[in-house]
Amino acid sequence: MKNQYSQEKKIFLFLFLCLINSLIFAQDCKDILQRAEVAYKKGHLNDVKEILNQECIDVLPSNEDKEKAYYLVTLSNLYLKDVEAAKESMLKILHQNPEYICDPISPVAFQKFYNSFKTTPFIVLGAKAGGNFSQIKSEKVYSLDDSKTAQEGTYTSSVGLNIQVFVKLPIYKRIELRLEAGFKQINYSFKNRQFGYSTIKFTEKQSVIEIPIIVKYNFGNNYNFKRRSKNILQSLNPYVVGGISTTYLLASKGNIFREDKLLTNGLSTLTSPDYNLKSMRNTFAVYGVGGIGIEFKKNRSIFTLECRYNYGFTPIIKSSARYDNQDMLLSYGYIDSDIKFRNIMITAGYAIPLYRPKQIRQFFADEITDKK
What are phi and psi for residue 63, nearest 5 degrees? Predict the structure, then answer.
């Protein structure tokens, strides 16, 4: 028991000494920025590097202080003609803050060196959600009544949900490639009178996985960090998108409401069960995509608002399965016509850029002028 108590006492004493040592070290590093600035102004560049050692920089209280420390180290390395060491300290600035803005009053050597690094993101990750509204394009009408009556039917749509995740890949100046994957609900109904006494209303709800491949052109530039302050208009990035989209049908449910006018002036109504219509629908569909949007960037966050139009090329109804559901045909008098979807989507989203800072142009020591 005594040995155990002695062991615990030693551990406590060791931890206490470590804490005291850390506090003393932190106190020693507290004024390193002021000391380093004084040394830099006096031209004692090696002293700057010695004062701003990595251990002291690590305990600085804020990222802003750390940036300033790395800035002084980079400047000192440049004027000492040690380009490799300057590159190492510059990358530490950019890894800590990829959107670091070079101060326009910085020495010319530092500005040239800063401009030799790439600071645009290599990928942008995001998600968006919103609603969609479908337009139904009738290609060929089928009906159990005469063709003239069949032509009088009307399609209406209700709002469906869509959720997407996406990645953006900057490929050239203001052009980005956007790869998306998402879930979409498409809701519509068809209403018509037939046989002179009957009204039917067919309602269908589809759930699909959508995979668009989009090219995006930006009229603004969210990744221009040369401007230190921007008003809201300068922070907006209007853009247009265009591309192609493929959908995969997960589920399709439909039901029919039928109302018959009787000879006695009464009404008879029938409501069908929910039918599983997936086997009667084409599994894959292809759409052309076009749209406009606007982005607002605040710090590292990008907020988006977008309106997009999807133009369907693929028939929704599987023609070979048109007559498969006999209950729909015989009990309710409904048969599918050939249709295609046109779809309007409005979404709001959030994205964040990811960076991999690197030097894109070799920097030579003879580009460094005398310290000013």
Answer: -65, -30
Q: Is residue 260 in a domain?
A: yes
Domain edge (last residue) among 101, 119, 137: 119
Q: Which of 87, 119, 151 is the last residue of a domain?
A: 119
Cα–Cα distance, 2 to 315 (Å, whole number): 85
| Same domain, yes or no: 73 and 204 | no
> What angle (nearest 5°) sits at the alpha carbon of residue 364, between those of residues 85 and 32?
30
Half-sphere exposure of 329 (CA within 13 A, CB side): 11
- Identify each DSSP E strand in the chain by its residue range: 117-118, 123-140, 154-158, 160-172, 175-194, 198-218, 236-261, 267-271, 275-276, 284-298, 301-312, 338-354, 358-359
Q: What is the pLDDT of residue 119?
A: 80
Does the CA dihedral 89-92-94-96 come out positive or negative? Answer: negative
**What would the pLDDT profile of 85-121 be if each residue is shown by its tens digit?**
999 999 999 998 888 888 888 898 898 999 899 888 8
End-to-end CA separation in angstroms for the chain: 69
**Based on the domain organization, do 113 and 127 belong to the same domain?**
no
Task: Please say if the pLDDT value at position 148 is more than 90.
Answer: no
Which of 91-95, 98-102, 187-191, 288-292 has the least mean pLDDT?
A: 98-102
Question: Which residue range is the domain that position 263 belongs to?
Answer: 123-354
Are residue 159 and residue 89 in the same domain, yes or no? no
Rounded-to-integer distance, Cα 13 and Cα 259, Å: 88
Q: Residue 246: beta bridge partners?
A: 211, 286
Whether the CA torsion 102, 108, 112, 114 is positive or negative: it is negative
- Given this model, what pLDDT does residue 20 score? 43
One-letter amino acid at 14 equals: F
pTM for the full model? 0.78
